[in-house]
## 1
Amino acid sequence: MTETSFIHRFEPATSAGSPPLLLLHGTGGDEDDLLGLGKMISPGSALLSPRGRVLEHGMPRFFRRLAEGVFDEDDVRRRALELGDFVADARQRYGIAAPVAVGFSNGANIAAALLLLKPDVLAGAILLRAMVPLSDPQKAELGGKPVLLLSGQADPIVPASNSARLATLLSQAGARVTHKVLPAGHQLSQADVALARDWIGSVTAKAA
C-alpha cells in the first residue's frame, strides 16, 4: 500500500448519467457503511468508499480529535490532503469524474475540509451532520460548486450555530449552499435520504 492508499470499496457505475459518489463514513464506520445510502440517493452512480485511517479506541475515523467537537486541526489538514491524493489516484485507476462527496458526521467534516483545502477534488458535496472543520481555513474558491448541508435540530453533537457557520463559510467561498435543518438528532432519517436524492437529481439535471 502506498502512503495515499486507503482500504476502500469501489462499485462501478451502472448508469452513465449519474455522478460518482465519494462515500465518507462516520466514527466507527467502515468502507461498507454508506454503500446502501449511496445506492438509495443516486441509483446507478459509481461508488468510491474509503475507510478512515485514524483509530480512536479501535474505531476508524478520518482525522484525530482532542475531545468531542474539538478537532486536531493540523491532523485535519494532513488527512484531508491525503484523502484528496487518494481520490485523484482512484479517479485515474477507475476512470471516474470528480465525485460528489456524501459524508456523515466525521466523514462530512473531512469532506468540508476537502472542499476548503483542495476544492478541485470534488464536484460538490452532501454534508450530513457536519461541523466547521477548521477554525481559520485558507480562502477557498469554490466557484459555484453545489453543497447540500443537512443538520439535525435536536443534534446533541453539532450546535445549530456551528452548522450555520459552516453554511456561511462555504457560501462565502463561492459554493451554492442549500442548508436545511431537519426535526432530527445526529442520526440520519428518511427525510435526509429523500432530500439528498432530490438534490442529486436536480444537480445532475443542471449539469446535463
## 2
Amino acid sequence: MGGREEILNINPCDVFKKYNVRPSYHRIRIYEYLKNRLNHPTVDEIYRDLSEEIPTISKTTIYNTLKLFVSKKIVREITIENNELRYDIITEPHAHFKCEICGRIFDLDLEIDVPKNLDGHEVQEYDIFLRGICKECLKREGSKE
C-alpha cells in the first residue's frame, strides 16, 4: 500500500482491516480527509476543517488517530520546515516541493536510487524536500510584467 492510485481507490475500512485498525467514525473521516485532499495538512488544519462537520471531534482524537496511522504505516509524518509536522497519505518514496509564494506543498515523482546501505548505515526511510516557485505562481508573476 502507498501509491496514489491505490489510495484513491481503496475503502478506508479495507485499509483498517489490512493494518488491524479498529474502524471508528472519527478514524474513517480523518483517513478520508487525508485521502481526498492530498495537501499534507497539519493537525490544526485537519481540526479546523473537520470540526465544522463533526463538532464533537477534538484535537486529541486527531493526534491519537494520526499517531496510530503513523505507527501502522498508513500515513507518513513529514516535517517540511522547522517543527511543523504534516501528514502524507502517500507512503511510497517521493519528493515534496513547497512554493515560496503560495505556500502549497506538492508531491513530485522523483526517481532516486537510494542504496539500502550507505557508508555502513542502514537506510530505512528518506525524505526529499525542494523549495521554489510553483508553476501557477510563475504564471501569475509572468502575467504581471
## 3
Amino acid sequence: MFIAHSNREEAAKLLAEQVKEKFNPKELIVSDVGVSCGASIGPGLCAVFYKGAPASAGLEKEKAIMDEICANIKSK
C-alpha cells in the first residue's frame, strides 16, 4: 500500500497507523507528493492507494473503511 501526502506529514503518519492496524499490509510506503504534481494539488492531500480486490458496488465497502479510519484519526 502507498500513502501520498502534500505537506501533511503528521496526518499521513496517523493514516499509516490506522492502515497498519486495520489491514496489516505486507508493505506500506509513505511519501510526499513532489512539485511535479503537488503544485497543482496544494497542501491538504492525504490519500491511500492499493491494488487489491475489485471495487465494491457504489464503493460502499471502501467508503465504510475510510469513514472508520477518518473517525479514528479525528478522535486522536
## 4
Amino acid sequence: MKISIGNDHAGVDYKQLIQEKLEALGHTVTNYGTNNEDSVDYPDFVHPVAEDVENKKADLGIIICGSGNGANMTANKHQGVRSALCWTEEIAKLAREHNDANILSIPARFVSKDLATEMTTTFVTTGFEGGRHQRRVDKIPAKKHC
C-alpha cells in the first residue's frame, strides 16, 4: 500500500516511529513532514499528503500535529478526503469501517507514541464495511445550492 505522511514540529518523533512501522509492514511511505522540531506551519506539510490521497497517488495518509485539529481541518478541505481525528484505537478502526476515512490525523500532544503506532496499524489494516455506511459516506461532500 502507498501511504503519505506529514507532520509539523510536534510530530517529528511520532512520524519517524510510524514510518518505520509502516515500512516494516511492507508499505511504501512518502514523507512530507518536517524532520526537526523547529516551529513550522502544519498546512505546508498536510496539503501534500491530502493532495496525494485526493489524486490517488497514495491509498491512505497519516498527518500529525500537536492537537490534530489543524491538520485535520486542512486535509478535509480537499475533495475526496475524509480525514479522521483519532485518539483511541477503536475510533481509528471505526473511522475506517464506518466512514471510509482515508487520512488519519494524530494529536501528538494528547496520545502516546505507542498508541499512535497502534492506531496507525489499525487504520491501515481495517477495511470499509460499505453497506448502509456507503449511503452515508456518499452524502459527505457538500453540494452547491442554487
